[in-house]
Every structure is written in C-alpha cells, then in structure tokens.
Amino acid sequence: MSAPKYIVDSDLKDILEKVEAGERLSFDDGYKLFRSHDLLSIGYMATLVRERLHGKKVYWVFNQHLNYTNVCLNLCKFCAFGKPKGHPEAYEIDIEEAVKKLKSGAPVREIHIVGGLHPDLPYSYYLELLQRIKEALPEVQIKAFTCVEIAHLAKIGRKSIREVLQDLQAAGLTCLPGGGAEIFAERIRKQLCPKKISGQEWLEIARTAHSLGIPTNATMLYGHIETIEERLEHLLALRELQDETKGFLCFIPLPFLPQKSYLRGEVAPTTGFTDLKMIAISRLMLDNIPHIKAYWLFLGLKLAQVALKFGADDLHGTVIEEKISELSGVDEKKALSRRELERLISEAGYIPVERDALYNPV
Ligand code: V47
Questions:
Q1: For a substitution probing ligand 1, which of 216, 219, 256 has the most ligand atoms within 8 Å of its CB?
Q2: 79: CA distance to ligand 1 center in Å?
Q3: How confident is the model at residue 213, as a pLDDT?
Q4: Which of 56, 61, 273, 277 is the most exposed place for a label (fewest CB within 10 A)?
Q5: CATH class, range 60-355
Q6: Atom 2, ligand 1: which residue's CA is nearest?
Q7: Is the pTM of this model over 0.90?
Q8: What single string gives the DSSP state of each residue in 286-344?
Q9: For the segment 148-177, what is each residue's pLDDT rounded down to a tens digit?
C-alpha cells in the first residue's frame, strides 16, 4: 500500500509499511521515530495500531490511590515524594486510618497502593493492610506495591520474592503497579537511584509475579538524563519479557517532573511534543503489551486527552488522592468524576469503557 501523503518524513515510509503489515519494529526503527519531528505521522501510525487492538474504546477505572508512607530508604534523585525518616514532612498511615479513609468515600473498584521503602514498618503491616482492606471492601481489587517494594518486603520478611508475592496474593493482592522501572540502564540507575534494585532485578520480580498469575504494569520515567538508546533498550527489554510471560497489562510512560526533585534547575520539564511522541512510540514498539496509559496526573488533563489520538487507550481513573504528583509540584486537580472522564474521552471521538483493575469492562 502506498504511503498516505501526510507521511511527510521520508525516513518513516518503511516503518509505515511495517505498521500496516503488522510487522514488529526494530531498534533502528525506534531510533528513527525518536529522531523524527513528524509527530502527526507517528501519531497516525500509533492510532492504526491502537485502533486495531481496541477499536474506538478508551478504558478508565473508578479508583483511589493510597500512598501509605513517603518515608524511603532509597531517596532517588528524581523523586520529590520520598523523605528520610524523621523529616518534618515524613508520614506513615496506620492501617485503621487507611481503611477508614477508603471506606468513607464512594466505593471504588480498584485501590492503587504505592509507598516508599520504610525502614521500620514490619512485614506483617503489608499483609494486614491488604487483608483489612479486603475485609472492609470485599469487592475491591488491590493493585499494590511496585517491584521495588516487593524486593524490600523480601528483605524485611527474610523471604524469597516468590514467597512474598504468594503471601500478598493470599492477603488479597490482584496485580502490581508499574513503578520503580525508571530506566533499566545501569548508567542511569547509578546516577539517579543508586540504592534502587537493578533493572535486571525489576524484570526478574515481574517475571516471578507473572509466573504466579499476578499481572503487572510497567512504567518508564523519561525526560531526564536518559538517551534515546536507553529508552529503546528499556522498551525492548519489556517487549522481550512480555513475549515470554504475557503478564504485562499496561505500559505507562511517566514524564519526569523536575520542579521539586533534587534535579530542579538542572533538567527542564518535558514538552508536549516529547510527551506525545513518547506515548506514540511506546504504542508502536510495544506490540505485545495490550494497553498504553496516558497518566493524566503527570501529563495534565488536556495533554492526556490529546494522547488518545497518539496511541493511548487508557486514561487511568478517578484517582481521588495521590501524593507523588502533589509533592512533585503538579498543579493539577487530584480527582475526576465519571462524567469528566467520559467527557474527555467522548470529545476525542472515542467510546469510554469503565474497566476493572484487569481491564475487564464493567
Ligand atoms: O517509579 C517519582 C515515579 C513512580 C517522580 O501501574 C516520578 O498504573 C515523575 O508506580 N517525576 C511510581 N515521576 C508511580 C507508579 C505508577 C504511576 C502511575 C500509574 C501506575 C500504574 C503506577 O513514580 C516511580 C517513579 O518513576 N516518580 N518521582 C517525578 N519527580
């Protein structure tokens, strides 16, 4: 099929042919996409793939976030959320309080739980947190603890990763959020998050979760000091693992928010152009991960809506309260109603589909 006239960048014509034929894109294709400024053509190709997979559907979930503590042993340079123990802004939520808070609001379908690596909370806290939430809200699905937290739990509980995941599963865990992946490259981790588990360890924990039937998400933190090659290596490592396990549900590219991090002043925030390209290239490279999420809390609502025309098929959810974006300096509202989410999706020409944590329509 000949290329439509609006594929302006001649470097992209071969890629269009591959996309139309449903062929897998290579590292070099990815490189060309990142180097190209032909955003509309990249978005057009991502939309071809996205509509092939999901038609006109855009998913969202009625969810609530719980950031149970911001005390963190890692204190990564990109993070404004984590605080050392004893810091005036450090907090931890006790289980009673957490359950009361979750019960007091409208009943949500998914609870998204992410926190810092707390030096003192015991292993039993994490299991009890899930058990008590399930007792109070038996219908709710719990998406909890990134691979980094799972590694921390193994350490404090003196258990293997597999045992930790099994314990959490028995306590009510549905799936894992995608955080902590950052950029897998050792060069980046050494500079930005030297105390964090390695990229290989992150992937190994995801592999173990998938082997136990626990689906996970995956993220990539971009727009700091990473190169195009490092972004692509990250995407291809996820694609390779997904070929093996099929356990990733969703990929979420997270734009770095420098304002309140240790890197403020050194790194400029990402631009709309970069954000949309990142979403579209993720859709094109990750041909085996079903969903690409436009995370409105970090992108801003308006750009997240536009991202639906650049390959994203998931708008996350209602959220209610979230601390990472708040402490990272995002000046965005913290909760959305069903009506607002549905309006954003409909006005982009798509059909809103309310989903559960596992992407089953509800
Ligand atoms: O891994 C921290 C990121 C992540 C900053 O699974 C920052 O649906 C940008 O797990 N600028 C944790 N990002 C969040 C997470 C998540 C988020 C959205 C959706 C899902 C999902 C999971 O937050 C961390 C880190 O990459 N982060 N600080 C910052 N200043």
A1: 219
A2: 9
A3: 98
A4: 273
A5: alpha beta
A6: 79
A7: yes
A8: -TT--EEB--HHHH-HHHHHHHGGGT--EEEE-----HHHHHTT--S-S---HHHHHHH
A9: 999 999 999 999 999 999 999 999 999 999
